Amino acid sequence: MATTSDIRNGLCIRHNNDIFKIVEFLHVKPGKGPAFVRTKLKSLSTGKLLDNTFPAGRKIEDIRVETRKYQFLYPEGDIFHFMNTEDYNQITLGKETLDTPELLKEGEVVTVVFNTEDSMPLSVEIPASVILEITHTEPGVKGNTATNATKPATVETGAQINVPLFINEGDKIKIDTSKSSYLERVKE
Fold this sequence. Notes:
Layout: E1 2-3, E2 12-15, E3 18-28, E4 36-43, E5 49-55, E6 59-62, E7 65-76, E8 79-84, E9 90-94, E10 109-115, E11 121-125, E12 129-137, E13 150-155, E14 160-164, E15 172-176, E16 181-186
Antiparallel strand pairs: 1-6, 2-3, 2-6, 3-4, 4-5, 7-8, 7-10, 8-9, 10-11, 12-13, 12-15, 13-14, 15-16
Protein backbone atom coordinates (compact mmCIF):
# COMPACT_ATOMS: atom_id res chain seq x y z
CA MET A 1 0.00 0.00 0.00
CA ALA A 2 1.18 3.49 -0.82
CA THR A 3 -0.03 6.91 0.27
CA THR A 4 -0.78 10.09 -1.66
CA SER A 5 2.79 11.28 -1.08
CA ASP A 6 3.97 8.44 -3.36
CA ILE A 7 1.87 9.66 -6.30
CA ARG A 8 3.89 10.37 -9.45
CA ASN A 9 3.24 10.43 -13.20
CA GLY A 10 2.99 6.93 -14.65
CA LEU A 11 2.11 5.23 -11.34
CA CYS A 12 -0.52 2.50 -11.79
CA ILE A 13 -3.12 2.19 -9.03
CA ARG A 14 -6.28 0.20 -8.34
CA HIS A 15 -9.24 2.56 -7.83
CA ASN A 16 -13.00 1.82 -8.03
CA ASN A 17 -12.35 -1.82 -9.09
CA ASP A 18 -10.32 -0.74 -12.13
CA ILE A 19 -6.65 -0.11 -12.89
CA PHE A 20 -5.70 3.50 -13.56
CA LYS A 21 -2.48 5.20 -14.62
CA ILE A 22 -1.74 8.64 -13.18
CA VAL A 23 -1.37 11.10 -16.06
CA GLU A 24 -1.13 14.35 -14.06
CA PHE A 25 -1.12 15.25 -10.38
CA LEU A 26 -0.91 18.35 -8.22
CA HIS A 27 -0.36 18.55 -4.46
CA VAL A 28 -2.55 21.38 -3.12
CA LYS A 29 -2.10 22.98 0.30
CA PRO A 30 -4.89 25.53 0.69
CA GLY A 31 -4.57 28.25 3.31
CA LYS A 32 -7.66 26.93 5.03
CA GLY A 33 -8.52 23.26 5.36
CA PRO A 34 -6.56 20.04 4.82
CA ALA A 35 -4.16 19.38 1.95
CA PHE A 36 -5.20 17.18 -0.97
CA VAL A 37 -3.87 15.75 -4.23
CA ARG A 38 -5.71 16.54 -7.46
CA THR A 39 -5.09 13.86 -10.10
CA LYS A 40 -6.01 13.02 -13.67
CA LEU A 41 -6.32 9.25 -14.05
CA LYS A 42 -6.51 7.20 -17.26
CA SER A 43 -8.38 3.91 -17.13
CA LEU A 44 -6.19 1.18 -18.60
CA SER A 45 -9.21 -0.95 -19.52
CA THR A 46 -11.33 1.69 -21.30
CA GLY A 47 -8.86 4.51 -22.01
CA LYS A 48 -11.16 7.14 -20.45
CA LEU A 49 -9.79 10.04 -18.39
CA LEU A 50 -11.08 10.69 -14.87
CA ASP A 51 -10.42 13.65 -12.59
CA ASN A 52 -10.12 12.59 -8.96
CA THR A 53 -9.12 14.26 -5.70
CA PHE A 54 -7.47 12.29 -2.89
CA PRO A 55 -7.20 13.70 0.65
CA ALA A 56 -3.57 14.01 1.83
CA GLY A 57 -2.24 10.87 3.53
CA ARG A 58 -4.94 8.56 2.09
CA LYS A 59 -3.81 5.03 1.35
CA ILE A 60 -3.88 3.99 -2.30
CA GLU A 61 -3.31 0.52 -3.72
CA ASP A 62 -0.44 0.65 -6.19
CA ILE A 63 0.05 -2.05 -8.82
CA ARG A 64 3.45 -3.58 -9.40
CA VAL A 65 4.34 -3.30 -13.07
CA GLU A 66 7.25 -4.24 -15.26
CA THR A 67 8.21 -2.82 -18.63
CA ARG A 68 9.45 -4.58 -21.76
CA LYS A 69 10.63 -3.21 -25.10
CA TYR A 70 8.47 -4.07 -28.10
CA GLN A 71 8.68 -3.11 -31.76
CA PHE A 72 5.49 -1.93 -33.46
CA LEU A 73 4.86 -4.15 -36.51
CA TYR A 74 1.57 -3.06 -38.13
CA PRO A 75 -2.01 -1.96 -37.39
CA GLU A 76 -5.03 -4.07 -38.34
CA GLY A 77 -8.15 -1.97 -37.78
CA ASP A 78 -8.26 -1.19 -34.05
CA ILE A 79 -5.74 -3.96 -33.26
CA PHE A 80 -2.00 -3.23 -33.13
CA HIS A 81 0.67 -5.93 -33.50
CA PHE A 82 3.93 -5.74 -31.50
CA MET A 83 7.03 -7.96 -31.29
CA ASN A 84 9.24 -8.40 -28.23
CA THR A 85 12.76 -7.19 -29.11
CA GLU A 86 14.41 -9.88 -26.95
CA ASP A 87 12.57 -13.15 -27.59
CA TYR A 88 10.59 -12.18 -30.75
CA ASN A 89 7.20 -13.20 -29.28
CA GLN A 90 4.32 -11.27 -30.79
CA ILE A 91 1.35 -9.72 -28.98
CA THR A 92 -1.71 -7.81 -30.15
CA LEU A 93 -3.17 -4.87 -28.24
CA GLY A 94 -6.30 -2.78 -28.66
CA LYS A 95 -6.25 0.86 -29.71
CA GLU A 96 -7.37 1.99 -26.22
CA THR A 97 -4.03 0.92 -24.68
CA LEU A 98 -2.16 3.55 -26.71
CA ASP A 99 -2.20 7.26 -25.88
CA THR A 100 -1.54 8.53 -29.43
CA PRO A 101 -1.82 5.60 -31.87
CA GLU A 102 -1.97 7.95 -34.87
CA LEU A 103 1.70 8.93 -34.30
CA LEU A 104 3.01 5.35 -34.20
CA LYS A 105 5.16 4.44 -37.21
CA GLU A 106 5.87 0.85 -38.23
CA GLY A 107 9.21 -0.29 -36.78
CA GLU A 108 9.05 2.14 -33.80
CA VAL A 109 10.30 0.69 -30.49
CA VAL A 110 7.87 1.28 -27.61
CA THR A 111 7.66 0.29 -23.94
CA VAL A 112 4.79 -2.02 -22.96
CA VAL A 113 3.76 -1.94 -19.28
CA PHE A 114 2.71 -5.33 -17.83
CA ASN A 115 0.90 -6.12 -14.57
CA THR A 116 3.28 -8.43 -12.65
CA GLU A 117 0.39 -10.32 -10.97
CA ASP A 118 -1.18 -11.75 -14.14
CA SER A 119 1.30 -10.68 -16.89
CA MET A 120 -1.46 -8.76 -18.70
CA PRO A 121 -0.35 -5.76 -20.81
CA LEU A 122 -1.73 -2.55 -19.31
CA SER A 123 -0.52 0.25 -21.56
CA VAL A 124 1.92 1.24 -24.26
CA GLU A 125 4.32 4.14 -23.74
CA ILE A 126 5.57 5.59 -27.00
CA PRO A 127 8.71 7.77 -27.07
CA ALA A 128 8.39 11.42 -25.92
CA SER A 129 8.98 12.60 -29.47
CA VAL A 130 8.86 11.00 -32.91
CA ILE A 131 10.25 12.11 -36.28
CA LEU A 132 7.77 11.84 -39.14
CA GLU A 133 7.71 13.03 -42.75
CA ILE A 134 5.12 15.47 -44.08
CA THR A 135 3.08 13.83 -46.85
CA HIS A 136 0.64 16.66 -47.59
CA THR A 137 0.46 20.38 -46.77
CA GLU A 138 -0.01 23.67 -48.56
CA PRO A 139 3.24 25.00 -50.10
CA GLY A 140 5.47 27.07 -47.83
CA VAL A 141 6.19 30.72 -48.63
CA LYS A 142 9.66 32.17 -48.21
CA GLY A 143 9.80 34.71 -45.39
CA ASN A 144 7.00 33.17 -43.31
CA THR A 145 9.21 32.50 -40.31
CA ALA A 146 8.54 35.61 -38.22
CA THR A 147 4.92 34.93 -37.21
CA ASN A 148 3.48 32.13 -35.11
CA ALA A 149 0.86 31.29 -37.74
CA THR A 150 0.31 27.60 -38.47
CA LYS A 151 -1.29 25.44 -41.15
CA PRO A 152 -2.56 21.85 -41.07
CA ALA A 153 -0.27 19.11 -42.37
CA THR A 154 -0.65 15.36 -42.79
CA VAL A 155 2.28 13.16 -41.70
CA GLU A 156 3.20 9.71 -43.02
CA THR A 157 1.08 7.91 -40.38
CA GLY A 158 -2.04 9.85 -41.44
CA ALA A 159 -2.20 12.13 -38.38
CA GLN A 160 -3.04 15.84 -38.76
CA ILE A 161 -0.55 18.21 -37.10
CA ASN A 162 -0.47 22.03 -37.12
CA VAL A 163 2.92 23.19 -38.42
CA PRO A 164 4.52 26.60 -39.13
CA LEU A 165 3.95 28.14 -42.57
CA PHE A 166 7.49 27.46 -43.82
CA ILE A 167 7.15 23.64 -43.62
CA ASN A 168 6.81 21.87 -47.00
CA GLU A 169 5.89 18.39 -48.20
CA GLY A 170 8.80 15.98 -47.76
CA ASP A 171 10.18 17.80 -44.69
CA LYS A 172 10.79 15.71 -41.60
CA ILE A 173 9.49 17.15 -38.34
CA LYS A 174 9.84 16.22 -34.67
CA ILE A 175 6.48 15.82 -32.91
CA ASP A 176 5.78 15.92 -29.16
CA THR A 177 3.72 12.75 -28.59
CA SER A 178 2.11 13.91 -25.33
CA LYS A 179 0.49 16.95 -26.97
CA SER A 180 0.55 15.83 -30.64
CA SER A 181 2.23 19.13 -31.47
CA TYR A 182 5.06 20.30 -33.72
CA LEU A 183 8.47 20.73 -32.02
CA GLU A 184 11.00 21.43 -34.80
CA ARG A 185 12.06 20.69 -38.36
CA VAL A 186 14.69 17.98 -38.61
CA LYS A 187 17.62 18.44 -41.01
CA GLU A 188 19.28 15.34 -42.39
